[in-house]
């Protein structure tokens, strides 16, 4: 710019007098005009992390992931850079649709053993389960029945069906019995609502045969199983709401992938920033 001005016969000093700026200010801006953005590498890392976590992480979670990578950056700066980059979670906040399997008293209703005490320092001591419903492309629906360990929030087994049959809950329960037999150190309690599946003789008998305590929420009281409701809300917010309806098979595949990601990669603040599997592994290694 300076050379162009000189060729036209103007001196920089004369121009500075006309426009009323100090010469030092001019040289400062020329120097910084070609200066590389000091946050280029950090911005690239933030963008990569945002994509790696499927655009489901906001600035607080991204900040924690940066700290795991030895980048100790203030969360306010991460917030500012993500705004500059246009990185923002766009998933809809919407109430999770609850499948109601209650058909009256068809079996024995048991007491609420958890009484909303959802925390435990012991793996496989307290498990919760429930059923939720998804709408698919066309007239099809998908029903999901996960079993969650309150110790670390891990989904230890789950069933998926087109219809809410008894197999939807029995197959994950049978899988869970094997896990309990090989890994549990204390007697297990499994908590559910009063849906007909959980009053069924097959469900009750399998629990008794394996000496598992059964627990049930009070009728129409979602707060009695808040941990399970919370998982359904997170799952639907992060991979279902705001997306176009897809076929049953495609949605089934996405749920399988999401639950694996949720267990192995999705960090939880209450687990010291670790995923459920990382926390379980870390705890077992520390105990050993």
From TrEMBL:
<feature type="domain" description="Integrase catalytic">
    <location>
        <begin position="117"/>
        <end position="284"/>
    </location>
</feature>
<dbReference type="InterPro" id="IPR036397">
    <property type="entry name" value="RNaseH_sf"/>
</dbReference>
<dbReference type="Pfam" id="PF00665">
    <property type="entry name" value="rve"/>
</dbReference>
<dbReference type="InterPro" id="IPR050900">
    <property type="entry name" value="Transposase_IS3/IS150/IS904"/>
</dbReference>
<dbReference type="GO" id="GO:0003676">
    <property type="term" value="F:nucleic acid binding"/>
</dbReference>
<protein>
    <submittedName>
        <fullName>IS3 family transposase</fullName>
    </submittedName>
</protein>
<dbReference type="Pfam" id="PF13333">
    <property type="entry name" value="rve_2"/>
</dbReference>
<dbReference type="InterPro" id="IPR012337">
    <property type="entry name" value="RNaseH-like_sf"/>
</dbReference>
<comment type="function">
    <text>Involved in the transposition of the insertion sequence.</text>
</comment>
<dbReference type="InterPro" id="IPR025948">
    <property type="entry name" value="HTH-like_dom"/>
</dbReference>
<dbReference type="GO" id="GO:0015074">
    <property type="term" value="P:DNA integration"/>
</dbReference>
<dbReference type="Pfam" id="PF13276">
    <property type="entry name" value="HTH_21"/>
</dbReference>
<dbReference type="InterPro" id="IPR048020">
    <property type="entry name" value="Transpos_IS3"/>
</dbReference>
<dbReference type="InterPro" id="IPR001584">
    <property type="entry name" value="Integrase_cat-core"/>
</dbReference>
């Amino acid at each position: 710019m300076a050379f162009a001005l000189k060729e036209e016969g103007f001196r920089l000093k004369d121009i500075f007098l006309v426009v009323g700026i100090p010469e030092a200010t001019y040289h400062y801006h020329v120097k910084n005009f070609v200066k590389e953005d000091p946050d280029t590498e950090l911005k690239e890392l933030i963008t990569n992390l945002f994509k790696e976590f499927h655009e489901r992480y906001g600035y607080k979670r991204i900040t924690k992931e940066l700290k795991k990578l030895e980048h100790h950056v203030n969360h306010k700066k991460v917030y500012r850079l993500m705004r500059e980059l246009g990185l923002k979670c766009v998933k809809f906040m919407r109430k999770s649709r609850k499948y109601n399997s209650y058909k009256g008293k068809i079996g024995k209703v048991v007491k609420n053993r958890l009484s909303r005490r959802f925390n435990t320092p012991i793996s496989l001591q307290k498990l919760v389960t429930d059923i939720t419903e998804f709408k698919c492309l066309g007239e099809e629906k998908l029903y999901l029945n996960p079993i969650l360990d309150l110790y670390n929030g891990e989904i230890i087994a789950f069933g998926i069906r087109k219809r809410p049959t008894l197999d939807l809950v029995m197959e994950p329960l049978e899988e869970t019995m094997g896990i309990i037999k090989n890994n549990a150190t204390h007697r297990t309690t499994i908590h559910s609502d009063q849906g007909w599946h959980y009053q069924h003789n097959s469900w009750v008998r399998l629990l008794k045969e394996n000496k598992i305590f059964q627990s049930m929420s009070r009728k129409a009281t979602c707060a009695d199983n808040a941990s399970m409701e919370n998982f359904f809300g997170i799952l639907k917010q992060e991979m279902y709401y705001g997306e176009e309806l897809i076929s049953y098979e495609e949605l089934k595949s996405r749920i399988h992938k999401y639950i694996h990601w949720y267990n192995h990669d999705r960090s939880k603040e209450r687990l010291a920033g670790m995923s459920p599997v990382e926390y379980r592994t870390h705890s077992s290694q520390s105990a050993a």
